[in-house]
Amino acid sequence: MTGVLAAARDRARDVLDPAFYDYVAGGAGRERVVADNERAFDRLALLPRVLRGSAVRDTTVDLPGAPGAAPVLVAPTAFHRLAHPDGELATARAAARTGVVLVTGMAATTAVAEVAAAARAADPAAAVWFQLYLQPEPEVTECLVRRAERAGCTALVVTVDSPVFGRRERDLRNGFTDLPAGYAAENMRDLPGGPPGRTRDIAMSPALSWDDLARLREATALPVLLKGVLHPADARLAVERGADGVVVSNHGGRQCDAVPAAVDALPAVVAAVDGRVPVLLDGGVRRGTDVAVSLALGATAVGVGRPVVWGLAAGGEAGVRQVLEELLDEYDHALALCGARGNADLAPDLVVRRGGAR
Ligand SMILES: Cc1cc2nc3c(=O)[nH]c(=O)nc-3n(C[C@H](O)[C@H](O)[C@H](O)COP(=O)(O)O)c2cc1C
Ligand SMILES: CCCCCCC(=O)C(=O)O
């Protein structure tokens, strides 16, 4: 990786506590999937069309609860105040000012109400989604959902790839298993069954099922997207059970170190969903051309995780803006080079395997 994103990552490595840098950069096991998410894009090439472009290109996408958004989202990543003192507030302002949907996480170090308010103060039209892990106690999940609704979030993103926490060898080596003193997952404060005024731990449960999703579906009118879908059969089930979108994701290689790269899993999920709901992707997106490849293969939009944290660590709000603007500018440039007048002109025939047919 070179360019703005690599410079942000290098700066982040210089300024961050090494254990937190490793927590962000690292992944599960031998980190094969972390590497493969990026390498999979390197294995794909764009096959441009000529003499059919436009000087002005339409790059906006319609997402659940976010019409006219940019095709790049801020994927949910935990603990932004460990990257920069302004934490999630800086990320929210940067996303809002670039027209990018922010998916703020249950594991944020700033409460969702404050994050959403900061985004709207920067741009009243800003869309913020809330990511959650379904909790084993339905009343805890419901309380989190009500907080997101009250905060004005326009969609929920339920992460389903984490029945247990990934085995992250860097974190085990570094002893990075708890937040340092003075930081907390603020959305987890004052929840049912938890200590008053204090935070509960986020639970991951292998006992969750499609019934828990059905309960959530009934508990809220907000659009619900499922994040962490790789198998086409699960994508089909998600649509049948009322999901408003699926996110093809392997959690940035942080959960199972033996799964396919996100972009390699995308086409089968797109085929299974068959246009019924938007399909998003995250994992390894580092260039505007990666955005173009993903949209050509059927994604409606893509999320970026680590690059946003690197930008935040490198320069707070301005650093995140630089990262997002670079990706969006590169994407628009890639569209021009492919002879596309907008996202709608991207199609699977524009993507081939590097060195051979797809
Ligand atoms: C530091 C870090 C924290 C993350 N925290 C969460 C989280 O709290 N919830 C979640 O669903 N995904 C989380 N993710 C996964 C991201 O949402 C996303 O799937 C992944 O980062 C995409 O890959 P990329 O980093 O290569 O862009 C986290 C990823 C990182 C790097
Ligand atoms: C049990 C702590 C939950 C934090 C979740 C952060 C996360 O998903 C990650 O990949 O790290």
Short structural summary:
The protein has 358 residues and is an alpha/beta fold. The chain has twelve helices and twelve strands.
Structural class: alpha/beta
The CATH topology label is TIM Barrel
- Tell me the count of domains: 1
Q: What is the helix tally?
A: 12
CATH-wise, what's the superfamily?
Answer: Aldolase class I
Per CATH, the class reads Alpha Beta
Q: Order of strands across the widest beta sheet? A: 4-11-10-9-8-7-6-5
Strand content is 5-15%
Oligomer: single chain
- The portion of residues assigned to helices is 40-55%
Net shape: globular
End-to-end separation in angstroms reads: 24 Å
- Biggest sheet features: 8 strands, parallel
Bound molecules: flavin mononucleotide, the ligand CCCCCCC(=O)C(=O)O
How would you state the average pLDDT, rounded?
97
H and E string: HHHEEEEHEHEHEHHEHEHEHEHE
The CATH architecture comes to: Alpha-Beta Barrel
Give start-end ranges of low-pLDDT stretches.
none
Structural topology:
Layout: H1 4-15, H2 18-25, H3 32-42, E1 44-46, E2 61-63, E3 66-69, E4 72-74, H4 87-97, E5 102-105, H5 112-122, E6 128-132, H6 138-151, E7 155-159, H7 169-174, H8 210-219, E8 224-229, H9 232-240, E9 245-248, H10 262-273, E10 279-282, H11 288-296, E11 301-304, H12 306-337, E12 351-353
Parallel strand pairs: 4-11, 5-6, 6-7, 7-8, 8-9, 9-10, 10-11
Antiparallel strand pairs: 1-12, 2-3
The structure holds flavin mononucleotide (FMN) and the ligand CCCCCCC(=O)C(=O)O.
Flavin mononucleotide binds next to helix 2 and helix 12.
